[in-house]
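seq as requested:
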Amino acid sequence: MLQVSNPYKAAIKSRWDHASSSITTLQTILDGPFAKLQQAWVGGSSEDAYNKLDGLRQRLSADVKTCNTTFQDAYRRQPEMVDEDAWQTRWRLIG
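struct tokens:
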């Protein structure tokens, strides 16, 4: 049977690249102010605000790792080439 490039694998890679770009942007947005707050805020309610922001940043970091692992696993499980009638060639039509 004729083998073709796996369009499903290519779509995973495309979405992964897009997600990675968005994640990097978000992390940069959060890291800049967080670093400044780390140096500037002292005492009072500032500690609570700092801890909340740090918690958000840590959750984002954990979510990023989970997202990256999910994309990596999905990408690695897919073959480069598939039969021309494989589900990967028509996955957009499924469902």
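Strands lie at 3-5, 81-83.
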